[in-house]
Amino acid sequence: MSIKLVSRRAWGARTPTAAYTKIPGTDGVKVHYTGGHVPPAILKDHEECGKLVRQIQSMHMAGAREQPYIDVGYSLIACPHRRVFVGRGVYALPAANGAGLNTGHYAVLALVGSLGFTEPNDGLLHAIRDAIEYLRERGNAGNQIKGHRDGYATSCPGGPLYAWIKKGAPRPKSHGDPEPVPVVQKKPKTTEALVKNLPVLKPGDEHRHVKTLRGLLFARGYEPANLHSTTYGKDEVDLIEKIRAFKDAKRIPSGADDLIWDAACWEAALT
After folding, report:
1. pLDDT of the chain, 271 residues: tens digit per residue
2. Domain made up of 189-270: CATH architecture
3. Could you give the CA distance from residue 265 to residue 78 in angstroms, rounded to a whole number?
4. Quick check: pTM over 0.70?
């Protein structure tokens, strides 16, 4: 089979707070949706998909589902560009299906909502099928394909997606080939000039642009806890974790010190 996987490192996943519970396989897969508003801009900008996945992981780990999860609750996450983000992956117990229901099915999230982007496009449907087949081949998933609402009181995965699932989750007639990765254009001179005027920051620094750093991380989906502080605390675990995740996602070489925020980091965050 052909699948375009986005690794946890590539999408900037945070490290789980505990080890996953292992499972030998499942009866099949349950499909979920984000619910709420998903901006239609996600269809034209694949970066928005990664941003949304990071937000969902942060929400799950912060306890938005009544209690904090150790990681994002889904096994895999499908996006409308026919790419599949690795969540907990295979042979790991998901957390999104509901109490007592996670051992029976892997959980696949579709990046489609109840407002904004609500009608799954062919790329998203192909990505869900890619995820299901991957879980069957690599994770010993059975043949069942269900919606989250099957066995749990919820509207998830929404009307359009659930209707497709009830039909057997058929592949669309179009090929739905993944979109090519955009060619990275040379950064505009205005950005280069701006970066030259920004300081290199390291733990222990007190500078007004530490607040700028926090704001840029928030805008890129990394969301540090304190947005207004001008201090880069040496023991500030939350900010340090977000900086490391951002640098890993952007593949910024760190050398001996991965906590320095330098010109390469400013440039990546500003463009």
Report:
1. 689 999 999 999 999 999 999 999 999 999 999 988 999 999 999 999 999 999 999 999 988 767 899 999 999 999 999 999 999 999 999 999 998 999 999 999 999 999 999 999 999 999 999 999 999 999 999 999 999 999 889 999 999 999 999 999 999 988 766 655 444 344 444 555 666 678 899 999 999 899 888 888 888 888 888 888 899 998 899 899 999 889 888 888 766 578 899 888 888 888 7
2. Orthogonal Bundle (1.10)
3. 28
4. no
Report the run of H or E that residue 116 belongs to, with start and end: strand 115-116
Distance separating alpha carbons of residues 261 and 208, to the nearest angstrom: 14
Per-residue burial over 67-95, b = 16 or more CB atoms within 10 Å of its CB, e = otherwise: eebbbbbbbbbbbbbbbbbbbbbbbbbbb
Q: Of 113, 118, 126, 114, which is closest to residue 169 (Cα–Cα)? A: 126
CA separation, residue 243 to residues 54, 157, 189, 230 (Å) = 14, 33, 25, 15
What is the distance between the alpha carbons of residues 267 and 271, in angstroms, rounded to a whole number? 6
**5-166: CATH topology:** Lysozyme-like (3.40.80)
